[in-house]
């Protein structure tokens, strides 16, 4: 189980790095084995930053990321390598993920040098064959090719195959479908479904609500670096609580799921913009809400800024104070 607890990232920006850009703030969620969690948000909401922190490509500013209870923020050397055996990522643009000078077999061969130094040639060949077949790639058709000789869908699958050479437990998939054309999209979506069935936990990062709705068990909605809503996918899509979630869902015509507007007292569900005077509806109204752990949340896991409105369905503050506390309850 991959767990994020109160994770934040502030990038140093400005000429001398003197300013900080809070890209991700106080994000907490888990990805369990055999589960697809979609992390949905508009461009710039902090999705890739979350993925990179999980993959240790960038450090975290605050909070804790752990795999099966072990904090991964400071691990090095052997421990970090052991972590990468379990957690791998595939990123948006398959073309830029490959060195154009290397053929596919070389790309996979680098994994051999790194993780399987003692393996025999025959054992390696069968491992490669197995992982390519599990992503429906024909080894004979791809191994001897340069990236530009492969399609976007093939490259994306090759990246997944590379991750599958290791017996990973968690795959971070950042916008991996966005770049593909419609006919390859469904193949990769189905592949993710197969991987899930084999017990892999997948963090499916996307700006595409309908894909997230289709593929995931749980949904986390990110806005400006904060979680505004999360829960079981049918609950988030069927009974969206936060005005921002409603606005997102309403603005995507291809979401093939109906939802009935329900009155949660925030006024019109459309055209919502952050109010400057509106108190946070949920935390002000719900006992046990506020900036501490929400009732019924996982033991010991604080959900700052999130209230649990129904079982496992969390909604974030509608209004934050300047110091980041909930607007309904100034600290
Ligand atoms: N290396 C970086 N340095 C400074 N700011 C960054 C860096 N990477 C991302 N950002 C900023 O952080 C915010 C979140 O970016 P990102 O995580 O890429 O969002 P998303 O993947 O949702 O589009 C954006 O405002 C982006 O401009
Ligand atoms: Mg991104």
Please outline what is shown here.
About 13% of the residues have low confidence. Helix 7 links the parallel strand 7 and strand 8. The chain is of the alpha/beta class and 331 residues long.
Keywords:
alpha/beta, binds magnesium ion, binds adenosine-5'-diphosphate, 31% helix, single chain
Number of helices: 11
> Which blocks of ≥5 consecutive residues have pLDDT under 50?
257-279, 284-302
The name of the CATH superfamily reads P-loop containing nucleotide triphosphate hydrolases
Task: Please name the CATH architecture.
Answer: 3-Layer(aba) Sandwich
Strand content: 15-25%
Structural class: alpha/beta
What gyration radius follows from the Cα positions, in whole Å?
21 Å
- Give the strand line-up of the largest sheet: 6-7-8-3-9-10-12-11
Count of all domains: 1
Helical percentage: 25-40%
Largest sheet: 8 strands, mixed
Average pLDDT, rounded to a whole number, is 81
* Series of secondary-structure elements, N-terminal to C-terminal: EEEHEEHEHHHHEHEHEEHHHEE
Number of E-state strands: 12
CATH hierarchy, class: Alpha Beta
The CATH topology turns out to be Rossmann fold
Bound molecules: adenosine-5'-diphosphate, magnesium ion
Shape: globular
Q: Can you characterise this structure?
A:
The chain has 331 residues and is of the alpha/beta class. It is built from eleven helices and twelve strands. The chain has one domain (2-273): 3-Layer(aba) Sandwich (Rossmann fold). β1 (2-13) and β2 form a beta hairpin. α4 (121-134) packs across α6. The model is unreliable at 257-279 and 284-302 (pLDDT under 50). The structure holds adenosine-5'-diphosphate and magnesium ion. Adenosine-5'-diphosphate binds next to β1, β2 and α1.
């Amino acid at each position: 189980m991959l767990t994020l607890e109160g994770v934040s990232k502030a990038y140093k920006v400005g000429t001398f790095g003197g300013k900080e850009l809070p890209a991700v703030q106080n994000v907490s969620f888990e990805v369990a084995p055999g589960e697809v969690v979609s992390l949905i948000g508009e461009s710039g909401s902090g999705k890739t930053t979350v993925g990179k922190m999980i993959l240790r490509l960038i450090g975290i500013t605050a909070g804790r990321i752990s795999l099966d209870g072990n904090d991964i923020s400071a691990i090095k050397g052997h421990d970090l390598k052991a972590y990468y055996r379990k957690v791998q990522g595939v990123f948006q643009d398959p073309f830029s993920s490959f060195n154009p000078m290397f053929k596919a077999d070389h790309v996979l061969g680098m994994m051999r040098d790194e993780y399987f130094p003692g393996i025999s040639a025959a054992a390696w060949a069968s491992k490669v064959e197995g992982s390519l077949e599990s992503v429906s790639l024909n080894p004979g058709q791809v191994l001897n090719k340069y990236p530009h000789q492969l399609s976007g869908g093939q490259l994306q699958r090759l990246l997944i195959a590379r991750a599958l050479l290791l017996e990973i437990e968690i795959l971070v998939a950042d916008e991996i479908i966005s770049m593909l054309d419609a006919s390859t999209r469904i193949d990769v979506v189905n592949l993710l479904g197969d991987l899930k069935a084999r017990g892999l936990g997948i963090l499916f990062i996307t700006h595409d609500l309908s894909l997230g709705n289709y593929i995931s068990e749980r949904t986390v909605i990110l806005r400006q670096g904060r979680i505004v809503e999360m829960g079981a996918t049918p609950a988030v899509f069927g009974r969206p609580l936060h005005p921002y979630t409603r606005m997102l869902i309403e603005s995507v015509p291809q979401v093939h799921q109906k939802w009935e507007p329900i009155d949660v007292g925030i006024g019109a569900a459309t055209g919502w913009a952050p109010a400057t005077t509106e108190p946070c509806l949920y935390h002000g109204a719900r006992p046990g809400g506020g900036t501490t752990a929400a009732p019924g949340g996982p033991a010991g896991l604080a959900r700052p800024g999130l209230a649990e409105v129904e079982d496992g369905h969390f909604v974030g503050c509608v209004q934050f104070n300047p110091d980041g506390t909930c607007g309904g309850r100034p600290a």
